[in-house]
Amino acid sequence: MLTRHGGEAIARLGAWQRDWLLHAGLLNGAACPAAGMVFAWASPLPRTRDTARAFLDALLPNCATAFGHASSVADDGLFHPLESRRVRLDPARARAAVLAAMGGGLDTARQSGAGDVRAMEALVGKPAACENSPCGLSGLPWEVRTSAHKADVAGPLRVGAVMGETIRMQYADGWPLGEVAFGAVTKAADVKQWMALRAAKYAVLDTVPYLAQRGGSQLMSQVLAAIDDDRAVGSPPADARLLIFVGHDGNIAQLRSLLGFDWQLSGYPENDPVPGGMLVFERWRDTAENARDRISVRVRYVAQSLDQLRGLTVLSGKAAPLSVTFLPAGAGPDGRLPRSRFDALISAAIDWSATFPASYASPVATASRGE
User: Which UniProt keywords are given for this protein, alphabetically ordered (predicted)?
Assistant: First the structure.
């Protein structure tokens, strides 16, 4: 569920994006976009639909902008290609990839994570039943579980990752400081130390190349289709000039891995998919007559700081969200990469056997509010 505070934070980001588009001349502040100019599609989970609604309401106020979503996760091949059974994993290969990312095996992962597990256990304590037996966080077995449609970890890494994210969300959602992490957090900088297990979990799951390719290629193919209209795997409506996909942090992590895009935002772990953060793909057209490559692409990751989320900061030029620009080989100093090179980069990263024709023809549409 998206909290009221969380919805307002998303709206702040939507309003900032609106200002950016107005300044760039891509939106008309006096009127709603023409039909078909904006296309939005969300994951079917309630929190994600609420996120889409909050963002669109702020991006296009009073326009009652509709967005689509599949009827359920089982029908959602875009954001959940594995869970919807549109894409399969090789369980043995997935397990080997996860163990390799752990440094070679579960023992290595257990040793490297021992300090973070002990720290988290000291913070949250143990159930009374665990006083005389090893059943607290550190007593859980480390496991890797793979099937044809899922790769996951169990034990301290998974549970500790959830605990760390809970602490972060308490701070970001404006909880009284005495209640955030049982009073162990007094400022934004204190949150980062409790995110170590979550960062480690992402490092051995969604960002592992094999898993990112199998789980993220369909979504990346749709981004590419929007930039380069001659893809054969289907694409969003051709007349859309602003395409908005609203998914999950795992989707962001997978696309980051496919791009080879590393970032470090102040106050967050390296490559962290921040709550409400967004990957922005910009298509630029050079109108100069002597331009060699008229179309170029720039990719940025944009997210609010923890204190901006907590304080519901009105984002502006003086209080802009955090942002980092992707600088692949061949890009200019501003990050713009000729479309031909971008196309080659992404086409090589995508596992085309994990893509399939997309359909947006019969969405379950939900209109955002209009006044």
Answer: Membrane, Transmembrane, Transmembrane helix
Which pLDDT belongs to residue 28? Answer: 87
- Rounded Cα distance between 70 and 363, Å, is 6
Contact 155, 140 (CB under 8 A): yes
- Count other Cβ atoms within 10 Å, centred on residue 264: 12
Q: What is the 3-state secondary structure (H, E, C) of the chain?
A: CCCHHHHHHHHHHHHHHHHHHHHCCCCCCCCCCCCCCEEEEECCCHHHHHHHHHHHHHHCCCCCCEEEECCCHHHCCCCCCCCCCCCCCCHHHHHHHHHHHCCCCHHHHHHHHHHHHHHHHHHHCCCHHHCCCCCCHHHCCCEEEEECCEEEEECHHHHHHHHHHHHHHHHHCCCCHHHHHHHCCCCHHHHHHHHHHHHHHHHHCCCCHHHHHHHHHHHHHHHHHHHCCCCCCCCCCCCCCEEEEECCHHHHHHHHHHHCCCCCCCCCCCCCCCCCCEEEEEEEECCCCCCCCCEEEEEEEEECCHHHHHHCCCCCCCCCCEEEECCCCCCCCCCCEEHHHHHHHHHHHCCHHHCCCCCCCCCCCEECCCC
Structure tokens at 201: 């979990």
Domain ranges of the chain: 91-209
pLDDT tens digits, one per residue of 132-165? 766 789 989 999 999 999 999 999 999 999 999 9
Q: ∠ CA(131), CA(106), CA(217), 5° rounding? A: 120
The residue with tokens 């106050």 is 267
Half-sphere CA count of 150, side-chain side, radius 13 A: 7
Contact 54/45 with Cβ under 8 angstroms? no
φ and ψ of 347, to 5 deg: -60, -35
pLDDT at 134: 67
What six digits make up the tokens of 317? 């030029």
In words, the CATH class of domain 91-209 is alpha beta
pLDDT, tens digit, 9 for 90 and up, residues 357-369: 888 866 666 767 6
Tokens 């009284």, located at residue: 176
The whole-number pLDDT of residue 82 equals 98
Q: What are the residue ranges in the chain where pLDDT is below 50?
A: 232-233
Q: How many beta carbons lie within 10 A of that of residue 63, not counting itself?
A: 18
pTM for the complete prediction?
Answer: 0.94
> How many CB atoms are located within 10 Å of the residue 325 CB?
18
